[in-house]
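Batch job 17 of 40 flagged for manual review because the log was empty.
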Amino acid sequence: MFVIEASVFAAWCFPDENDPIAEAAFKRIATERAAAPALWWFELRNVLLTGERRGRLSSVQTSGFLMHVENLPIEIDREADGRLTLHLARKHRLSFYDAAYLEIAQRRALPLATPDGALRDASRAEKIPLIGSK
């Protein structure tokens, strides 16, 4: 199992956002489950809606992508430790949203898949293994 961050899905959805970390996560989710905080559900849909508004995909493409994602083995983690998440956000100057992914990875001792540089730096500082390379 590993933690998967929302921007990984943008790279899967938008061909111009090809990313080796997203590719590594795509290969990995074929054989194992992923975890994400509850906010991931909203983040993903916001990314897709923003893509629609910018003409990067149609509503039909959004629906198709969401149907594909809903069939993936992604577990929504609802056990977040709010104090730890806030501590991590402050310590690493992350948004609370990004710190939520870090908190799950730390609490559950799972590697993290994210192309976000600040989140990767925070993961390294917390000794959380990362999926892929960049």
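Reviewer: the log was empty due to a logging misconfiguration, but the result itself is present. The helical segments are 7-13, 20-29, 39-53, 59-70, 82-92, 96-108, 117-125. Unflagging and moving on to job 18.
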